[in-house]
Amino acid sequence: MARLSWRRKFEGARPAHISVLEKSFSGLVAGSSLLIATPAMVQQAIDRVPPGRTRSTAELRAELAAGSGADATCPLTTGIFLRIVAELALEDLAAGVPVDRVTPFWRVIDPDSILAGKLGCGRDFIRVRRADEAALGERLSA
Description:
Radius of gyration: 16 Å
Shape: globular
Low-confidence stretches: none
Number of domains: 1
Number of strands: 3
Helix content: 40-55%
CATH class: Mainly Alpha
């Protein structure tokens, strides 16, 4: 059976929805509302992170939840969607899309995280992109 491409996973995602937890989950108590986002929502949130800045995945989830009126965003599906968005950006880079035209996932995925180790680019790519953006920011502010 053929694996789905990252683009197919991105485009084939189910619609976003908010679930009310029947039992406690991931630090949330029963009755809390949990946003199940989409890869596109994760991508849009990452695209709003300015060059040279970073956000933690927890901050990204909080932003998504606040924008949807939910108490929290599901950490499990957000991690899956972060990988889909990152791998799709890497496919685009490999196809020749300029780095400033792809979703800058390196601003959200910590290079020391488990997720970074799973990505096709490896941890060093994220470190280099972060360093390049920081250096560019320093040159522009000088």
